[in-house]
Amino acid sequence: MKQTLIILVCLAGPFLLYGQRPVTLGVKAGISLANQRYRITPIEYTIETEPIAGPAITLFVEAFRGDHFSFQADIGYSVKGSRSSTQSVTVNHLDNDRIIVSEGEMTRSLFRYLSIAPMARFSFNSDHLAPYFLLGPRLDMQLRYSSDSDYPLTRLNGSILGLTGGMGIEFTLQRAALFTEILYQPDLTPVTGEDPLLVKNHMISITVGVRLLNSG
Prior knowledge:
Largest sheet: 8 strands, antiparallel, barrel
Shape: elongated
Distance between the termini: 37 Å
Strand order of the largest sheet: 1-3-4-5-6-7-8-9
Strand content: over 45%
CATH topology: Porin
CATH class: Mainly Beta
Number of strands: 9
Number of domains: 1
Order of helices and strands: HEEEEEEEEE
Helix content: under 10%
């Protein structure tokens, strides 16, 4: 029940923001570098993975803008996952919990998400060029999962809670503002959500974008 309430608040946030005036609208796009942490419990064994690159596309609305602080809601599409050459892991409990790893060809797991991230935005005063910081919660809703592994993940969580934080620099024109931004997105809840295998996403994105000023 508590998680459902959080999801509803995250979904309603952008629409509530849009109802406040004045607001600014914008779009940003770029590349992302995502990876995953595979942890096997209770022996705390971690599987090594390699990152994957993907697109990062986001629409956003900003409201409650003051001298320094404002509130921004991002709605974006992202590709997360990892690459790994590990096909199977076996724990031999008769031999002092010895771990036997069977190596195979490099495989890739891809998760496509629609993300909603309401964030606090702090910016420095400037006539034209202003740095800023972003921080807030995030909800990832799974659109699709694909894997070329012989052992794909099962019992996936369709909704993932996480955090989004980062910084950027913005150049203001008369009717619009151009900016570049870097964000880090760690997950709070796992992709699988069940022992003995726990998998969590984390991602870094670098984007450029445009913000339309004085809308409404």
